Structures are given as C-alpha cells and as structure tokens.
C-alpha cells in the first residue's frame, strides 16, 4: 500500500482544522469544525473526532502514515497532554492518546501552535533557507518557536521559543501568566487596543475597538494609536533581541493578526531593534512578515509528523 501522506490537526480556541498533506506540503483534503471552547473537555474532543472522521472517510486516508498536531498551549509533548489557556475544559488532557485511538493508531507528534507555525515558515515561508530563526505569532496572545542549526527546536515539552512570556518591563503590569511586564502583556492585539483606549483613543463610528482598528487609525496619523503600536514594537524588539543574544538567530518572522498591521508595526520595530540588538553577532538580525497565512498551523503540524517519522527511522 502506498504511504506518502501525513495527517495534520490545527487546534485553537476558535477552530479545529484537519488536513491530509503531501510530502511537499500540499494540502489535499481539508476538514474543519468550530471549537466549542466553553464546553467540557469531551465535547471539545468530539469536535476533534468529527474532523478526524471526515479525514478518515477520504479515499486518500489509507496513504497517511503519521499524524501531527499543532495545539494551543501550553502543551506537554513528553506526556502527550495539552492545557490550552483558551480551552478551559482541557487541563492535562491526554490528547495524543485520544487522537491516536481515533486515527487507527498512527504515530502522532504533538507540538504547540507557535512551534507549528515556525515549522511551516521554515519549510515553505519567510524563514526558508535560514538555519537559525525565531518565528512569532502576534495575535490575541504572543507565541513563537525556534529553528536552531537547521532543525526545529521544540524543547522537552514542546514549548521552546515561547517569547510572549519573556519579561521586558521589570516593573510592568501583571501578566495572566503570573509574571510582570511580559511581551504578550504589551504587544498582543487586545493589549495594544487596551492601551490606546486608556490613553484617549476614540474608535470610529462603527465602535470597533480591535487592534486592527487601532492600526487603521495609526495609518491616518492618530498619535495615540501610533504610540500604542510604537510601545508594542519596542516590547517585541526587546524580546527578539534577547532571544537573538541567547541563541544567535539571524531572522525573526512575525505573523498573526498584529503582524498584518504592516509598516505601522515593522517600521518602529526595526528602529527599536537597532537599539537593542547591539552586539556584533546580533546586529545582522532581520525581521520579516510571515508568508504562510491561515494554513501555517496545518502545514507546520504536517512538518512535525514528517520529522517525527524521520527521527524514528520509520
């Protein structure tokens, strides 16, 4: 029997997506369900099983020889469990065992969603050709992952590269994680919007108070909106420079909804990066927008499945 495909799951607080993916990263079959994030754990799992049932009913399913999961986190790849902040019904939930049972006992690889997007960007996106990279998702939260020495570096539990919870303001606001002054507390979309509102930004007639609306106002020259993005860019630059100093990355790729703000974010980010990345071995560091879009989680989960099989020598 021909076995040349992998299955992939991208599990977040809004949607559960699944796919069958070829060895070159082409998505051949898709399935998707909304995430019942406020329901109990078994209800969420049923949505995952519905996605898997749709995939397993495809004529291509017999060609799948492994399955990768990119999940909102924290994840614990060593135990096969997940505890997504935005899915309260899953705490230390045995996702790998449950998925393996629903997928006919295929080998399963679990990584965090930030790591999945990193795998996708390194395989086919903005970090392609870079052996040492940080890839970030700047959206409702701030996550990330690392490529070191040309390989995805997940760490023992699958959370390495979680830049959102590096503290860049020692006396800053408390973060829900328990620390203070985290990158996420300053640079995530909701916090960009919160800061703009607190400092007097007035939304438009539609009442939109999202970070995208703040970005739109910044493009028209609104000084408060620009200042909120400037502060986010400074926090991101400090976190990126600290990461580069620690592990010698040469590119930082930024995706997610905030990344779509374009030069409203990237112009001050590059300016601040020059202030923070000052040592000779980090000065060449560049930043770039992500390229993989909404399929990044699925493509990255597929990459993890392929890498896991290769490492196991299957």
From TrEMBL:
Q: Which Pfam families match?
A: ROK
What Gene3D superfamilies would the database entry show?
3.30.420.40
Q: Which domain of life is it from?
A: Bacteria
Its family remark reads: Belongs to the ROK (NagC/XylR) family.
UniProt-recorded name of the protein = ROK family protein
This chain's source organism reads Streptomyces antibioticus
């Amino acid at each position: 029997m021909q076995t040349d495909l992998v299955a992939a799951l991208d599990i977040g607080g809004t949607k559960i997506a699944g796919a069958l993916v070829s060895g070159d990263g082409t998505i051949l079959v898709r399935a998707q369900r909304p995430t019942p994030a406020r329901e109990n754990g078994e209800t969420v799992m049923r949505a995952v099983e519905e996605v898997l049932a749709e995939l397993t009913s495809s004529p291509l399913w017999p060609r799948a020889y492994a399955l990768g999961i990119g999940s909102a986190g924290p994840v614990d790849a060593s135990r096969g469990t997940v505890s997504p902040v935005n899915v309260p019904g899953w705490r230390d939930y045995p996702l790998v065992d449950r998925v393996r049972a629903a997928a006919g006992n295929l080998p399963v690889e679990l990584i965090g969603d930030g790591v999945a997007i990193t795998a996708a960007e390194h395989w086919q996106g903005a970090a392609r050709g870079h052996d040492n990279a940080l890839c970030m998702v700047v959206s409702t939260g701030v996550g990330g992952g690392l490529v070191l020495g040309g390989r995805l570096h997940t760490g023992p539990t699958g959370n390495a590269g979680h830049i959102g919870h590096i503290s860049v303001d020692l006396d800053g606001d408390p973060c829900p994680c328990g620390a203070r002054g985290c990158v996420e507390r300053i640079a995530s979309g909701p916090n960009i919007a919160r800061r703009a509102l607190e400092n007097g930004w007035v939304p438009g007639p539609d009442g939109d108070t999202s970070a995208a609306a703040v970005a739109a106002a910044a493009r028209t020259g609104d000084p408060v909106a620009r200042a909120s993005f400037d502060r986010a860019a400074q926090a991101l630059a400090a976190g990126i420079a600290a990461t580069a100093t620690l592990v010698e990355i040469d590119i930082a790729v930024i995706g997610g909804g905030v990344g779509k703000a374009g030069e409203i974010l990237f112009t001050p980010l590059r300016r601040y990066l020059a202030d923070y990345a000052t040592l000779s071995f980090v000065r060449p560091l560049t930043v770039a927008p992500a390229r993989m879009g909404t399929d990044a989680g699925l493509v990255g989960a597929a990459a993890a499945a392929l890498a896991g099989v290769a490492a196991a020598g299957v």
